[in-house]
Amino acid sequence: xxxxxxxxxxxxRYDPTAAEIWDRVGVVCGDLNNEVKKIxxxxxxxxxxxxxxxxxxxxxxxxxxxxxxxxxxxxLEGEPPIVIAPWKIALKDxxxxxxxxLLTAHTNADKATPGVSDALARALGITNxxxxxxxIGRVGTLPEAISLKxxxxxxxxxxxxxxxxxxxxxxxxxxxxxxxxxxxxxxxLLAEVRSADVDLYLTADLRHHPVxxxxxxxxxxxxxxxxxxxxxxxxxQAATLLAQDLASGGYASVEMKISTLSxxxxxxx
Length: 269
Ligand SMILES: [Zn+2]
Prior knowledge:
β3 (60-63), α3 and β4 (101-104) form a beta-alpha-beta unit. α5 crosses α10. This protein is 34% helix and 22% strand. It folds into two domains: 3-110, Udp-n-acetylmuramoylalanyl-d-glutamate--2,6- Diaminopimelate Ligase, Chain: A, domain 1 (3-Layer(aba) Sandwich), CATH 3.40.1390; 116-230, 3-Layer(aba) Sandwich (Udp-n-acetylmuramoylalanyl-d-glutamate--2,6- Diaminopimelate Ligase, Chain: A, domain 1). By secondary structure, it is an alpha/beta fold. The chain has ten helices and eleven strands. It has helices at 3-13, 47-55, 86-97, 107-111, 116-123, 148-158, 190-195, 208-216, 227-231, 233-248; strands at residues 26-29, 38-42, 60-63, 101-104, 127-131, 138-147, 167-169, 175-185, 200-204, 221-224, 255-258. Bound molecules: zinc ion (ZN). Zinc ion (ZN) is lined by residues 65, 184, 227, 231. Zinc ion is lined by residues 65, 184, 227, 231.
């Protein structure tokens, strides 16, 4: 199939117009007339993942995080121009010279159904999923109620947790059943989670002040499993859905690779 046909299919699944206004999703670089035979999925577009994609002879990369986000923001009159980091320019040039098309699906993948938080919840065995009221996160239940400490151990065994580990707030023996999840940075949803009457909220990038204030207001238990780990399950879901869309659209199947290379930045704890 042509890269342009693949982009059309992906845009139906992950509508670019659904992305947040500040987001920069869609095709970043590459020739859309290229033939696509090998699609590589990753969370972050970094030298390590691009090298892995090139070594595998990928001709199309689907990434969750935009390569250029703040750099493409509108510059207001009188503000200094935004400088693009040299490594990003080098990476984009490398993708172009290798004939690889790069497409990112970020907040439009968060908002899709199924999307990033559905993938996270399902990976952890959370079912009966409904939207988190007031947002695009998900609320669901476990097949059996278990203690917070056992659930935290389960999270660690299932998700690609970074060297920094996971952080938990709550009584380890507390029994949990109803859980809210939000893949990626999630401390902006602490108020919505409190209103959703859940036993636990699992997300990433929880900061000191929002968390300590939420706890004083009566927070459920909290698990910070790391940004990369909570978004990584989406890659598998996106690949599975794309394979279905290719089959139902009458396209020949293409090879797909889900990167298992951790792009979490932490080295040890
Ligand atoms: Zn993210």
